[in-house]
Every structure is written in structure tokens, then in C-alpha cells.
User: Fold these one by one.
Assistant:
Number 1:
Amino acid sequence: MSTPPVEPGNSDLPEPYPQPLPYPQPPQLPSYAGPEYSGYEVHGWNQPPPRPQGTNGFAIAALICGILGCSVLLLVLAIIFGCVALSQIKKTGQAGRGLAISGLVVAGVWVAAIAVAAAVLVSNGTVDRIGTAVSQSGSAVDGFKLKPGDCFDRPEDAKSAVVTSKPCTAAHDAEAFGTITIKDTNFPSAARLKTLSSQCTEARYRYLDPDRNYPGVTTRYLYPDASLWDRGIHVLTCFFRSNAGPITGLVRPSGIPYTDQQKRYVQAVDKPDPSLEKYEDIEKPTWDDKKEFAAGEAARTQGDIDALAGSPWQDGAQPSIDALVAKLRTQLPHWQDAATAESPSATARALGEVGSTTTERQQIHTALGIMN
């Protein structure tokens, strides 16, 4: 404590008390460098958590997905991201609420537009892609969803699988009679599709009256291209097409009785081939599968030769029958070699030399007046 100064002219005041000596200062302790702590901050007590800075990432993602919402996945992501963003922003106070709401709004607009477009297509009785068929008569129908007995119009040079549904009582181009499921893993080659198409012939025997002839129609099939295969269309549609103008009514009741020569040929040769049907179901046949198939075809070929060459045929058919028998006799040793080969390569080589009898058989059908 200090003494106030003496003002001039006040010399009569008493002398001040002497000031006590200052206390000695404690010795200075050495200082240590180290972190500085203050209060309870070391543990973060009573301190609010730091707030994230910038714009919320989910809000940005919601807006981007909403704008690019040309697929169902993007629209779903836009809605999910938008909801997550709003929830986070409410807790953290980040920027981006407007972006999140915009993303949800844009996604909603996309959904509404798609719903309206779908409603218009359905109301007009049309289809916008394979797989969404409308069943009423006269409308566009997915050709791969036809059922046996369905009648339709389709130009012979058409490239699309969409056909026009028609009542069978009215004139129409074709009638479906079967569907063949393709069990292959990968898209089949043209050669593989042609092989599979022979199953339509087998289906025809099951659909029609076996005791009647149908010379006015031809067997056809509808197959998927690579783009339809990628969309899950893995079937063949088998159908009849008229050889001369439109069809009226169902094909099955229109059959006529076979003549003796026609019945003889059909019962002897033109019949289902179980060995071939089993083999065609195998996408990647093993060596044993090929040998088993060849053995079955060898036995069938020998039976066809015996049936055809046993007695003469009517004059118009005899040349065609003779040509088929000659071809079958050429095929027989190749079938036998394939069935008994001692290596896969030898079996494959023998099968490659068999050849086809399609032309000869079609000529016989024409000569005898039997449906091809």
C-alpha cells in the first residue's frame, strides 16, 4: 500500500507511518514446456459437437438421380437419398435442404409421367415392348405369349415379334399350336435355333389328329433375337400358316383322312423322333450324349430304309422315295461310326458327315400331298 502525496500548504499534518518492508518473493521454479489445458476442455465436457460444414452429400445425390431418373433404379435412389438428406440436415444444420426437396419433387414428376404414359398405352390397346401384351381381339399381342389355339395376323416378311390378335372364326394368317422353352444358358446360334425348331414338328404331332392330313398349312416358328433374349424371352412359338390365303376356323378340325399311301408313309417314317427330341434339349452334349444320339438315329435310319424300300409307291412319289432311301443309306454308316467311335473327335467328325434329308422329305410330302 502507498501513501497519498502531501499537498502543498498542509505541512502541519503528521508524518506518515513507515511502510513495511516487502515480503521476499518465493524462488522461481523452472518452467516446463507442454500442452496448455484450460478448465474441463481436456475432456470436452460442456462443449457442443462440431457441426459438419458444406452441403449435405445425400442432398446433391438426390437431385442428380432425380434429374437423370430415366430408370426405376435412379428414381428409387433419388427418393432414398432425398429422405436421408432431410433427416441428416435436420440434425446437423448442414446446407442442402432445398436440393434434397428438389430431388424428391423431380423424382415424383418422373413417376407421374411414367404412370400417365402406361395408362395411355393400355387404354389405346397397344403395347410398347415385348412382354406387355393386350389380349383383346384386333390388338397388338406379344407373339411369345400366344397359347395353342390362338389365331393372329402377321405378315410373312415381318421382323417384329408383335402380332395382331384375331378371332379364329374370322379370316386370319396363322394359328399358334405350341411353345418350346429354350433351356440354353447363352443366346443360341442360328444353327442351334434351327435344330431347336424341329421340336415344333414334334409338338405338331401332339396337337393335330394323328389320323388326319393337313395339306393346306405349313409349320412355322417365331424365335427371339439377341435383344429379346437379353430381356428374358427364351421360347419358340410354333404356329401354322396357310399355303394359300387366310385360314378360317381352327386347323385341327379341318383335317381330312389319309389315303392309303399317305398313311403308310406317315406311320413308317413321318413320326416323332424321341432320340432327336432328347438330344436337342441338351445345350452342351457330352461325348456320351453324342454317341447315344447317334446310336438312336442309326436304328431309326435302318427302320426307315426297311419301311420305304419294302414295296413300290404310287408313280408320282416313287422317284422321291428312291432319292430319300439313297440318302438314308449314305447316312447310316456315318451314324454307326459316330456311335462306336473311340474318341470325341472321331464322333464329331462322323456326325459332321451325316448330312440332311430335309429336301428329300419335303419332295415326298409334296408328291403325296402331306403337310410339310
Note: The chain has three domains: 57-123, 137-257, 258-372.
Number 2:
Amino acid sequence: MFVRLLGKNNIQMIREIEKNMTNDYNFSKQNKKEGIYKTVGFIGTGVMGLPMCQHILNGGYEIFVYNRTKAKAQKLVDNGAIWCENPQQVANKSDIIFTIVGFPKDVEETYYGDNGIFSGIKPNSIVVDMTTSEPSLAVKISEMAHQKSCLALDAPVSGGDTGAKNGSLAIMIGGDQKAFDEILPIFKLLGENIKYMGKAGAGQHTKMSNQILIASTMIGVVESLLYAYKAGNDLGEVIDVIGKGAAASWSINNLGRRIVNKNYDPGFFIKHFVKDMGIALKEAKRMNLSLPGLALAHQFYLSALACDYGELGTQGLYRVFEQMNGIYFAPNQKDCNTLS
């Protein structure tokens, strides 16, 4: 009787609706299990932070965002992120708070300032600092998080703006294992090579190893291309060959191409790279470790700062070496040949 009253088509439609509701319920349970319903805060929407935050937004998370320059976060707000006036507001509204700012002093201000994260954080929250910063500061943040019944991770990244845009970053993580396990689904939105390295500060120490390797590698990239230029080779063709042999590296295949195209836009600022090398040298001194190659690279990049190249990408070192060799001198730039 019930079937005759409703009709077979209507009964089939009702069963289909019930099936979809069950699927939605199961999907919701899975998302809740993976933390999809946790609110996310994101502080720092520059060259790296903006695409990283967009990936999390695309992953279906509700995001509260803050940046010192609001205009740099406007694209995210237009796409659905919720603007906050300071880090305190972000922390108060979020379960997981990501930060990626410039210098250690910026990290300290973001976390410990009058309107900082720790002035508004809720118990059981997780903080994740993705800035390349001092390992000792990562430990300090972790200790304060624990005092507030929260968890903390230091999770610097490598891969530059290309990796951030493509969601293919390398992420090296230190801190609370429980926090890492809980937010791994978010890390997977940002990177492909994700590794938990150990206690608080371990992520930052791993990033220092990364920066030490890049520092000396960039000297090799620049010198090899300058040699090829003076020898009369086509630089693009040189990279085609050596970029697939024993000398292959991410730097020659990516930043080398930018040098060839005279593209010095920052995937990673020289001024931030100098900061990173300074941290590594400071840590090496603390460990009574001599790293003369890093010290030399640091001096070359300090020359880049003296030439007002701090806003260029790390491949801008090429311009310093050009000028050292009398190959190129840009109008309205300081003559680096006069540097001692």
C-alpha cells in the first residue's frame, strides 16, 4: 500500500537520499577524525605563506588569517579566509596556529607580544612555527606552549616559492609527536617530503643543515655559470647537460634557470638567507664547530646586502660575482668592486 501511494519512482528517490545522507555522515566522521573540523589560524602571508595558506583553505579548513600588511592577505580573504586584527585574535579563534614570518625577532613578537599568540591561545591548541628561526627559540616556544596546556612544533620548510605554490615543500619537524600525528593531514597539503625529526628544535637544526648545503652550492652555481659565460657557451644548454649529471642540484636546475633569464625575483630573499646563515654560524660556534665554507658564503652574501640586493632572491648572488669580475654593472647600483 505504501509503495502504491508514493509510487516506485518516489520510493527509489527516497532511498537514494538516504544513501547519500549515510555517505555524507561517513564522510563527515572521516573528516572529523582527520581534524578537518578544527579551525586553523595562519600568520604571515608573504611569498611563502600566501600559497601555503591557500592550500589549507582549498583543503576545506576554516582559516583565520593575519599579516602585518593586510593587502598581502587580501587574496586569501577574498577566497574565504577570515581576517583578524592581530595574532591574539587568530589564536583565540583557532585550534591550530601556523606562523611563517621573517626573522627571529618577528617570531618573538608574534608569540610573546602584547597582542601575541600566547596572550590569546586556548588550552589544547597547537602552534606550528614554519619560520626558519633559532633552535633555542623553538625550545622556548615549546616550553611556553606546554605551560598553557598546548602543544608546539617547529616546522621550517625548503623548496622556495615554487614548492610553496606546488604544494611540494620539504618540511622538517621538531616538537611534540602527538601534535605532528594530529596535523599530518595539513602538512600533506603543503609538502611531499615530510619528516618528523625529534624533540623541539630538531626541525630548525635540520633546516640549518639544509641552508649550509645551499650556501656553498650557490657559490658553485654562480661560478659555473660565470665560467660558461666567459667561455662563450649557451648558459641554458650548459644547464641542460650539467643539470642531469653528477653536478645536478635543485639550485642549478631552478635558480640557475632564473639567472639565465635575468630573473632575480625572490623565491627566498637574500636578506632572509643571510639571517639563516648567521643562525647556523652562531649554532656552530656554540658547538665548537668550524665551518669555513659557510663563513665564506656568508661573506659573499653580506656583500650582496652592501649592494642593496637584500630584496632579491638568493640567485642574486650572481650579480655580485658579475661585478667582482667586471662583467656587469647595473646603473644606480653600488659598485661592489669597491668592497673590501
Note: The beta strands are 40-43, 63-66, 82-83, 96-99, 126-129, 151-154, 157-158, 169-175, 191-198.
